[in-house]
Amino acid sequence: MTRQSLEVYLHGRHIGVLSGSSLRLEFQYDSDIVAEYGASSILLSLSLPVTRRKITGTSVFNYFDGLLPEGHVRSHLASANGLATPDALGLLRILGADCAGAVQVIPAGMSPADSSEAVPMTDTEVINTVEALPTWDLPENFAITASLGGVQSKVLLSRRDDVWVWPGRGAVSTHIIKPDPHDSPVPHLLTGEDWALKVAAAAGLPAAESRLETFGARQAIIVTRYDRTRDGGRLHQEDFTQALALASTAKYEGTTSAPSRLTTLVDTAAPHTRDENEFRRDLIRAVTFNLVIGNGDAHSKNYSLLIRDGEILLAPLYDVAPTQLLYPRSVNAGHALGGQARLDQLTLEHIMREGVAWGLDADDARSAAVGVLEAVAEAAWASPADDTIGFLRELVPARAGDLLSGESARRILG
Questions:
Q1: In 3D, which of 344, 261, 247, 259 has the Cα closest to residue 295?
Q2: Does the N-terminal or the C-terminal CB of the chain have fewer CB atoms within 10 Å?
Q3: Which of 160-169, 252-261, 275-284 has the lowest mean pLDDT?
Q4: How far is CA 249 from the centre of its chain?
Q5: Rounded distance, CA 320 to CA 195, Å?
């Protein structure tokens, strides 16, 4: 099988070379990067610390493959470009110019950032693009060169001077537009996600900004990318699967045995944080929020880390939706917490146990969780909601009360 190679940039600087064939990838950091940052430094990923040697194995594949979409979105993109769906290197050659975080993966000889390829779009072009998803019916000069993980159909655009702009190769996308998924069993999913993000922000939790808008015949949620700066720069990040060298297909934790996946994540990330216990509290707050709103999609690709000059921080909440409260079968918490992974069985005690496993004092873990429950109860009641999900304004505070009293959280009112 023919070997290929791609150049890897971070914040516009060349940091190494990705090479290999199909499912077998290798990554080599540049020698000047090793000299400047030192061996074992965290620059690109927790799972790929800086080293002089060439890195091989699943950690390389899982990190770079994790930059790509999943499911039918990936299949569509592969088919449109004449590639096999598993061909991560081939897909990155096409899509790697704008990825999650500050990493860019591009063919040799190409500029890592060429904003001149950003093309202003007409209202009709934007509507047609959103309405056509999950397929793409695009004008000839609108080649897809950006990538973002996940299974939901989405389009990545930039917003400049109140105009939507198509991000050509190397240009920075600033917003994610996700239309209502035709095949989702969860009713009012986008409305619920937008409301949940607003509740999180009102409760004082870092969360991505969002709004709802209608494009032609389809409603969509527009999410401002938290890994982009206000002036269009890139912030580096990776999701938990990438940080733990896990495949995207393993995003749901498959066991409740100790140590939990989040314990492993904390043990790996905390030494690189400014305040280890505050990082643990931030994660407690995030998992508590996802529990109280009934998020059955809080898996390892829906939590991320920001990486800033080797310092690790928990990324803002994103892709949060009250799926369990909209669809009864959505009961998987995504991660095991204190030995339990079912939303309908989890209690405050499980969260406390999980925090203790991470190294927090029990009272500290409880205080962080209780603070979120109290703040979310108040924020949910005060946050306006569409009539289709208006019951959540009462149900979520009731769930917070259940958890505060030591019970599992109810799914319906009454």
A1: 344
A2: C
A3: 160-169
A4: 14
A5: 9
Taking a C-beta distance cutoff of 8 angstroms, is the pair 92, 169 a contact?
no
Q: Where are the domains of the chain?
A: 4-106, 118-224, 237-404
Q: How far apart are the first and last CA of the chain?
A: 62
Q: What is the rounded average pLDDT of the residues 121-147?
A: 82
Listed in sequence order, the residues at least 6 apart from 100 whose beta carbon sits closer than 8 Å to its beta carbon are 67, 147, 148, 149, 227, 237, 238, 239, 304
Residue pointed to by tokens 């939901």:
152
Our measurement of the distance from residue 44's CA atom to the centroid of its chain's CA atoms, rounded to an integer in Å, reads: 16
**What is the helix (H) or strand (E) element at residue 37, kind and residue range?**
helix 31-37
Predicted confidence (pLDDT) per residue in 196-238, tens digit: 999 999 999 999 999 999 999 999 999 999 999 988 899 999 9
CATH architecture of 237-404: Orthogonal Bundle (1.10)
Confidence band of 414 (pLDDT split at 50, 70, 90): confident
Q: At what angle do helices 88-95 and 71-80 cross, to 10 degrees?
A: 80
- What order do you get walking across the sheet with 4-10 strand by strand? 55-56, 24-29, 13-21, 4-10, 103-106
Which SS3 state, helix, strand or coil, does residue 132 take? helix
Supply the pLDDT for residue 71.
85
List the 175-179 sheet strands across, edge first: 119-120, 163-166, 155-160, 175-179, 218-224, 210-215
- Chain position carrying tokens 């700066």: 229
Cβ atoms of 112 and 169 within 8 Å: the answer is no
* Residue 170 confidence (pLDDT) above 60: yes
Q: Are residues 367 and 283 in contact, defined by beta-carbon separation less than 8 angstroms?
A: no
